[in-house]
Amino acid sequence: RSKMDGRGTWRFFEPAMDASLQSRRALELDLREAMDKDEFDLFYQPIYDLQMDRISGFEALLRWPHPKRGLVPPDQFIPIAEDIGLITLLGEWVLNRACEQAASWPSELKIAVNVSATQIRDPRFAEVIANALDASKLDPQRLELEITESVLLGNSAETIATLHKLKAHGLRIALDDFGTGYSSLSYLRSFPFDKLKIDQSFVRDAIATKGSKLIVRAITGLGKSLGITTTAEGVETIEQLNQIQAEGCNEAQGFLFSRPVPATEIAPTILSLRNGLSRCRLSSAMSD
Ligand code: C2E
Ligand code: MG
Ligand code: MG
Ligand code: MG
Q1: Which pLDDT score, from 0 to 100, does residue 109 have?
Q2: Is the pLDDT score of 2 beyond 50?
Q3: pTM of this prediction?
Q4: Between residues 201 and 209, which one has the greater pLDDT?
Q5: Which has more confidence, 135 or 213?
Q6: Which atom of ligand 1 is nearest to the CA of 116?
Q7: Which residues have any ligand 1 atom within 6 Å of their CB?
Q8: Residue ranges of the EAL domain (predicted)?
Q9: For the segment 142-185, what is each residue's pLDDT rounded down to a tens digit?
Q10: Across residues 195-201, what is the average pLDDT?
């Protein structure tokens, strides 16, 4: 295949480039179709309160069960949804579904929803949130929005104002993947976060690598000084759990507690995590 370039000469695509462009176009078309056909799904992963020794809530994680490609991971399609302008619609679907789901849970459980930068910059964002809360009758205090540092990159006055407005309505705001973005600590000054989620890369290495251990310690200390919750992401082993608990992290999330589960497995997951810490330690002691 070939294409005229700006100067009226023919330019030939590399076959490899052509193929990846085609598969990208195909994925875009599939995404739009999936949106029309309501083919997305939400999974839920428990967030464990280490002090209370119980689940404090669940994080909603988007899944795309593709008829031919299988389960497409969000890291592969969310950036595309952003590019083709589908993220606001998709994000609205996620918020509605997550709030509706959480409204049926015991009232002490929160729901955390990931929101992208584009979504927050949409002028309708506050209205979308209000609608999701209205329709589900979910207490706003039970809804937590997870944003990444990229949301704050522009540090635009509007974004900060939107977040303040949502907070004033009782929502909580968590800073996700903390430590991996263009971390400028001034973000922490320009916005009153409720929670820092320590990126799983630091948690994973916190046993073997001194640097990562010190970063976990520093972030936890920062959270303490600021009076906000710290959550360790990606806790997979009992050693990591012991480590982050020793550092004073308030919450943990990861495969050690549970993988993300479909809505139908939420109740059994809550049951199986009763006294989760002692259970985790017991099962690890038995496998030693
Ligand atoms: P995230 O918000 O940081 O979510 C945590 C990711 O880590 C999830 O991947 C989760 O399945 C995975 N995870 C949890 N525990 C462990 C563990 O112990 N070990 C390992 N290796 N991984 C663990 P997932 O579901 O593939 O999501 C990836 C990212 O996609 C999310 O990262 C989030 O940034 C984004 N995402 C997911 N759902 C949504 C959504 O509804 N909207 C938006 N805008 N982004 C979303
Ligand atoms: Mg998240
Ligand atoms: Mg994260
Ligand atoms: Mg992430």
Answers
A1: 97
A2: no
A3: 0.92
A4: 201
A5: 135
A6: 44
A7: 45, 61-62, 73-75, 78, 91, 94, 114-116, 146, 176-177, 200, 233-236, 253-255, 260
A8: 24-274
A9: 999 999 988 877 767 888 899 999 999 999 999 999 988 776 68
A10: 95
Q: How far is the CA of 61 from the centre of ligand 3 (A)?
A: 11
Separation CA 184–CA 18 (nearest Å): 39
Angstrom distance (rounded) from CA 177 to CA 274 = 27
75 CA to middle of ligand 4, Å? Answer: 8
φ and ψ of 46, to 5 deg: -65, 145
CA distance 257 to 42: 18
For residue 62, give the ligand 1 atom closest to its CA: 38
Q: Residues lining ligand 4 (ion), CB within 5 A?
A: 177
Which residue's CA is the closest to the ligand 1 atom numbered 25? 61
**Tokens, residue 214:** 């010190």
The answer to whether 129 touches 95, Cβ cutoff 8 Å, is: yes
Q: How far is residue 99's CA from residue 103's CA, in Å, rounded to a whole number?
A: 6
- Give the per-residue pLDDT at 84: 93
Angle between helices 157-168 and 125-136 (to 10 degrees): 20
